[in-house]
Fold these 2 entries.
Entry 1:
Amino acid sequence: MRWWTVLAAAGVGGLTYLGINLCREVATALGGTPTGDRLRRMQSSPRWHDHGFVNSQPAPPPNPDVDQWDALSRSLRDRAATKPTGPIPVVRHLGPQGRVEGAPVVTWYGHASCLVELDGIRLLMDPVWSDRCSPSQLIGPKRLHPTPVALADLGPIDAVVISHDHYDHLDEATCAILGEITTCRFVVPLGIGAHLEAWGIEPGRITELDWDESVVVGTVALTCVEAQHFSGRWLSSRNTTLWSSWVVKGPSGCVYFSGDTGYYDDFAGFAARYGPFDIALLAIGAYDQTWRYVHLDPEEAVAAALEMGSPLVMPIHWATFVLAPHPWAEPVEWLVSAAAPAGVKVVIPRPGEPVEVAHPPDLEPWWRPLAIAPTPKRRPLVG
């Protein structure tokens, strides 16, 4: 047998092995399919229409055959600007010395992953600790900075709270690890329990809620509230689980967590129902004409904050993964330029840096030395 034949056979064998493992990894990451009582409860929701959930207001999702490829091509064309020019500074805060009693303390770990501490309760929001937000760790958007702290070093977690099932908000590996090393609850919108059960989380630890439904953890109420977005971990599962934002309210404070949402006309309404808010964790990144109806841009985030009564704003959903063609630091530069004249106070911590909401630090533009041409966008606020 000639040497190149041996090499070719080895190459084919290696690719076959890689392909089999890739298929297994993707199949696991896809999660589960709601059936039985879970599906019947979903279908009885006022948000369910025909074969899936719908937004209260028209919000056409991206066309995967056209819009997504256009956004990808623009990302590749302007790839240098979408990443920082050097290492992103992270704060390696190794968990609490004790539980935070009283007013909220929020730690942003990157993208939408946050720890909310309030009245002795510790809630982990949309945790994604994997290197890639993708069904495979071989391909897909790769994180731009390390996780500030290992999951095992977070300290006690009372509940993991998920906004929706997209890969940059619901991570199979992270949830599986948390299921093993903690005894916490998982509080999620309708349908997502099927994914968690497929990944080994016991049904008794999962609470699924519709919009405007609540569950109490200790003395803190978690309320699932409307968001304008969509769901799905594969094209065939579009909108088969619910998406949401969250209100976290205790005796000593109230926190709004946007998850992913576009701009719509009920920010003032749910603020009146569930506020007042001390801080709003608002997604400001991954905006683009492609996702116009389902992702806030920074100026829309300021408009939403004004309608919610001008709480302190902490931006999330930026800096960690490249998910849109805009420059890496543009979201925070745009947010700062829009917030100042509107009188909205903003806090922009480094990943891993705890923020005491009652005593927020002064704004320090730590991102600017890492940005290429950080020119803010400007346009009129949404009416």
Note: The helical segments are 3-29, 36-43, 67-77, 172-181, 193-198, 267-274, 298-307, 330-342.
Entry 2:
Amino acid sequence: MNTRFRGKSLNAFFANTNQRRYPAPRDRLARDRDSAYHLSWVTASTKAGKQATECGQDVRAPRDIRASSLIAIVGPTASGKSGLGINLAQRIGGEIINCDSVQVYQGIQIATAKMPLEDQRGVPHHLIDFVSPSVNFTAADWARAAIEKVEEIEKRGHSALLVGGTGFYLRALRRPFFDSPPTDEALRARLTAIRERCGPEHLHRILQKFDPAEAAKLSPRDWPRVQRAIEFCLQTGHPISGQKPLRPEPPSVASRIQIIALNPPRDELYERINERAEAHFANGLVAEVRRLLEEGVPANSNALGAHGYRRGVEFLRGQRDLESAIKQTKLDVRHYAKRQLSWFRHEPGVQWLAGFGDDPDVQEQAFALLHPAGG
């Protein structure tokens, strides 16, 4: 094994780094799928045809849509993706697969924008509320689960729609990742502490020492990918840049993905984001964070690292006051929305719609993309 990342060279950055391996999230996920919490969603899925009929959904979707396209509705947070997804699903006989990295978690409700059951209009939803918040569910985990759901849905003669703004999830489905070790929670916590204390640029300088080729391709502000590249180096002793050519072949569904992205007016989007953040705190976000911590969910987990939850943790620790937590959450989410738009602009084959997904005109434009003139 290449050892140039191990030994004394690490001491400049980490003291007593814990290299303990944790069980793979997939193993714990299998147990979560058997929980009573998840069974409610499984039951709802098995009643898909009955729900669709009762709610006026046209289950006789045109065959060409099912055969040629796996529809993905993406865009920035608060842009109305869920509303558009439900509208299209009702019209083409579809079922929705969640593509949001926070909505997968059980018990994480207030700041997740999960669509209430009564607002789903009989459209079955999948991969929501099925992972313990203590599990760091990965993009690769989601891609495996999504492929299974697509196959199940299409066997029922329905169309699958991927709906959500986590671009990394969608990329994992279109271009699968190479095998990598499970997350070392202690190492991630140390890197996170360094980032918060010294800034993301410091992490990027660390990566330049470990893997110059990968560092040259990543922006210093792209700290999630920078941090993961450092973790990979420290856990395996190899640069991540040398592993990327070993990616497996994309699944058969990847070539059928049709991506529709929402791009609403920026000022209106930010206004919605600000209003939503205020509503989350007013509706008990801090109490929800306190409950999750009391139940043993790690403060550095993916679930509590989500927007709003992270600032709630800081408030409960006395690191900021409530007004500051709300203000910072608004800023966090606005910056996240900008990153989402930038991410999808760099994805190939995206069809953009100017407006919000709950706008009837935008819904008609999206439906027209599924039925091109003369098609």
Note: The chain has three domains: 7-17+181-246, 25-177+249-266+352-370, 269-337.
